[in-house]
Amino acid sequence: MTIPYQPRDPGNYRPRIALIGCGGITMHHLTAYRAAGYDVVALCDVDATRAEARRAQFFPDALVTNDASVILRDPTIAVVDIATHPADRVPLIEAALRAGKHVLSQKPFVLDLVDGERLVALAQANHVQLAVNQNGRWAPHVAYMRGAIAAGLVGTVSSVDLAVHWDHNWVVGTPFDDIDDLLLYDFAIHWFDMLTCYFPGQTPLGVSARVTTSAQQRARPPLLGHVMVEYPSALATMSFNADTRYGGSDRTLIVGDMGTLSSSGPGLSEQHVTLTTAAGSTSPVLKGSWFPDGFHGTMAELLCAIAEQRAPTHSAANNLTSLALCFAAIASSRSGTRIVPGMVRSL
């Protein structure tokens, strides 16, 4: 069976797109959008020089402004990619939804589930789509594995084990070094979101997590962590070591009653996937990489959803499950107790 794992563009539908927030990560947004032939017509940042730099590099005909309201008042702009930091994002998303714009929000979506639920309801009331840039879903190995699960190739999943070892000390000297829960919030949100995909329809019952600092790390927040998530008849574990200076590794093992999926490699962009069932083992040759294909995937799925008049698979409503897992893990790491997802509403 062929598993579709690459981003799917929406035919000839090419709406006018604006980007609000032109920080470092948006280089990958714009690289993907340019390669896909998307129509990015405006770039906004409080520091207009950053927007001008993005314009010069990617979309030389785009409007540059430091005033988001200029974009929101433009009736020809249909989609807004909001890539600011979380604290600034909620009012921008709200204003964009009220202006009738479809929105792709940077992750993590919100700092408070109440805000997230309110924005989901606001999008529905204004008949627009609100999606979250959980770009890890379109990393080729992740997209293939979630596609295989959705196709029923491994049956009912009973366990997922994720182990990620890399060097995250690059955050020293950046605003990310000031985030106390950097490991579980800003980074691991991708892996909590993967669990939402790997356990479709299953409600998590409890989360236990621990974090600590290594003796050698240079970053301020803890870079070592372990998380266990309980489901009614399944268990997931996540192990993180963000102070791995040499020999990085990223491994996934998904076990079902009809098959097993495994993926491993030295990092996020180089993964070897194997599907094993009663019929034997197969290892697909996957094209692409998380960066920038993941960013292509998030915008492509939103555009497809708009064109097909349906909710995107990475809708904000869907992402609230991933956020609830993340918030519970952070609370557990602080309290040392098991936390039921959804009980912790905000950070």
What's the topology here?
Blueprint (H helix, E strand, L loop, with lengths): L15 E5 L5 H11 L2 E6 L3 H10 L5 E3 L2 H5 L4 E6 L3 H13 L3 E4 L7 H13 L4 E3 L7 H11 L6 E9 L16 H6 L1 H10 L7 E7 L11 E8 L2 E8 L7 E8 L2 E9 L2 E8 L2 E3 L7 H19 L7 H20 L12
Parallel strand pairs: 1-2, 1-4, 2-3, 4-5, 5-6, 7-10
Antiparallel strand pairs: 7-11, 8-9, 9-10, 11-12, 12-13, 13-14
Task: Kindly state the percentage of residues in helix.
Answer: 25-40%
Quote the average pLDDT: 97
Secondary-structure class: alpha/beta
The top-level CATH class of the largest domain is: Alpha Beta
If you consult CATH, what is the topology of the largest domain? Dihydrodipicolinate Reductase, domain 2
Specify the number of helices: 10
What is the tally of beta strands?
Answer: 14
**Beta-strand content bin:** 25-35%
Specify the CATH architecture of the largest domain: 2-Layer Sandwich
N/C terminus separation: 43 Å
Estimate the global geometry from the Cα principal axes.
globular
Written account of the structure:
The structure is a single chain. Helix 5 links the parallel strand 5 and strand 6. 34% of the residues lie in helices and 25% in strands. The strands form two sheets. It has an eight-stranded mixed sheet with strand order 8-9-10-7-11-12-13-14. The chain has a six-stranded parallel sheet with strand order 3-2-1-4-5-6, sandwiched between helices. Helix 1 crosses helix 9, helix 4 runs parallel beside helix 5 and helix 5 runs antiparallel to helix 10. The chain starts with 15 loop residues before the first strand and ends in a 12-residue tail after the last helix. The protein is of the alpha/beta class and 347 residues long. The radius of gyration is 20 Å and the shape is globular.
